[in-house]
Amino acid sequence: MPLLEIRNLVVRYGEIEALRGVTIAVEAGQVVTLLGANGAGKSTTLRAISGLAKPTSGEILFDGESIAGLGPEAIVRLGISHVPEGRRVFPGLTVKENIMLGASNRKASSAQISREADAMFDLFPDIRAFADALGWTLSGGQLQMVAVARGLMAKPRLLLLDEPSLGLAPVIVQAVFRIISQIRKDTTVLLVEQNARMGLSVADHGFVLETGRIVLGGKPDELWGNEAIAAAYLGGHAKASA
Amino acid sequence: MDLVLQLLFTGIGIGAVYALVALGFVLIFRATNVVNFAQGEFSMVAAYLMVVFAVDHGWPYWLSFLIALGGMALLGVIFNLGVYYPLRHRTFLPVIIATIGASILLSNSVLAIYGPQPQVLQGWFETPGIQLGPVYLDSQYLLIIAVTIALVIFNYWFFEKTLLGKKLQATSQDKEMASLLGISVSTMIMITFIYSAVLGGLAGILVAPVLFVSIQMGSTIALKAFAATIIGGFGDVAGAIIGGLALGVIETFGAAYISVPYKDGFAFLVLVAFLIFRPQGIFGERVAEKA
Predict the structure, then answer these.
(1) CB atoms A101 and B180 under 8 Å
(2) Residue A240: pLDDT above 80?
(3) How many Å apart are CA B132 and CA B6, to the nearest integer?
(4) For residue A232, what pLDDT is reported?
């Protein structure tokens, strides 16, 4: 049984049908990458999983249980942590406070959470020096590290990462992806990316979304191997970001 | 010089009341992005609760005080559930209008029960005050200042040193992200309303022996406190406290040296001056950084 299974998911924002029947599965221990252009529905898929967007129809099963229609507070308690687009680090809180709040989905003493947050800096040494800096003072790459660290503090069984490479310099993108390849040892990851090459480099499986529908799915090699499709959906982005 | 010290003491005393109400304004504004126009009525209702228990029933002052604060906490819950919660997904305008409606409801309910006649509430202490060198320290003003200092320290500790305080701050900065982390946004907003209602109530109880207990006391205090938040820098906690104290001192000196009848005018003159020359307030930059 897959850890996460989505069947025929439809999400409407008013008149607009953002998702028109999305079906994907994520096996435990995998990194699955969701590719597609702007507006294809990648972020909406993640928002529906984490409870920020209400599904109009279709099923979302986590560990076999339906979670469609639950609120975000309930879903993160089940073990799905969503690192949303734009990092959303709290600007008026320090880096360490931001990371500590990542544990709000579970019961633990603040001393315990503080220790875990300190330990998180071993995985993200680049932001250790900024532990007491306020969120708004950080650069884009640092914000991304904080956002991922905060997402991991939930001890998720499934981590949803939305465009971690967006707006970052290539060297920082590499650092972020090094971290993803470390995270995958313990956590299942559903990754949304426009940067197809980076996105598939860490993936076990990939899906391509186009205007609210999955048009292609397979192992990274198969996706690259399909010349016509790779050129249409992957090539342009890969070249642009290479 | 003696007069200056005396006026400074009185000004800080009355300013502390504005600071407490202003703090309530700011906390609710930060949590909900809405100005609560019933914040002043919290002070008025609490003062009348004191009249009910301490004067009408003749219960001990401390007991009446605790019951009144408990009543304010309950009012905070009811206010949140009745005024804010049903409209929480709407824009700020319906919510603001609802708070104005609640303000009218509260003051008219009290009017219906007590009539327009102002009531008198004694101070906490039997001793009217103490003479310290050239300055006469009124005991009620001393109490107001002491309670305000204690609350400012508590407020700092609560928001800066506790995880719950951090969750409240996170909720005020980005509700959607807070909910993604598992922070119960509706609980955080409930706590904010309870805390703000208690703060406003405390201000009303403390200032009641200095003023009369009247239907209008809420709107007078709220207008001054609102001016204080703008002078301090809207949405800023330290700004609300500094702004409140500054306003109290300015109007006290204005009344003493320029004109007593225009006492209330000075606060708004300063407000207008700030709106023209420094609309972001004293701590304005920090507000801008939050964006």
Answers:
(1) no
(2) no
(3) 10
(4) 64
pLDDT of residue A234: 59
A8 within 8 A of A22, measured Cβ to Cβ = yes
Cα of B221 to nearest chain A Cα, Å: 30
Closest-CA residue of B relative to A112 is: B163
Per-residue pLDDT tens digits for B178-203: 999 999 999 999 999 999 999 999 99
B181·A102 Cβ contact <8 A: yes
pLDDT per position as a tens digit, A201-225: 899 999 999 889 998 888 988 887 7
In degrees and rounded to multiples of 5, residue B43 shows phi and psi of -65, -45
Please, which residues have CB within 8 angstroms of residue B44's CB and are 6 or more apart in sequence?
Answer: B106, B107, B110, B204, B213, B214, B215, B217, B218, B221
Helices (H) and strands (E) in chain B, counts: 12, 2
Q: Which residues on adjacent β-strands are paired with residue A191?
A: A33, A161
Task: Tokens for B226, please give them.
Answer: 């609102």
**pLDDT for position A230:** 66
Q: Decide if B176 touches A, using CB distance below 8 A.
A: yes
CA distance A26 to A2: 6
Residue A228 has pLDDT above 70, yes or no: no
Whether residue A88 lies within 8 A of chain B, CB to CB, comes out as yes
Which distant-in-sequence residues (6+ apart) come within 8 Å of B18 by Cβ?
B203, B221, B224, B225, B228, B243, B244, B245, B247, B248
**Pairwise CB contact (< 8 Å): A97 & B176:** no
Are B177 and A84 a contacting pair at CB < 8 A? yes
CB contact under 8 A, A93 and B166: yes
- Burial class of B256 by CB neighbour count within 10 A (0 to 12, 13 to 18, 19+): middle
CA A178 remoteness from chain centre: 15
Q: What is the ipTM of this complex?
A: 0.90
A136/B183 Cβ within 8 A: no
**Any CB–CB contact under 8 A between B164 and chain A?**
no
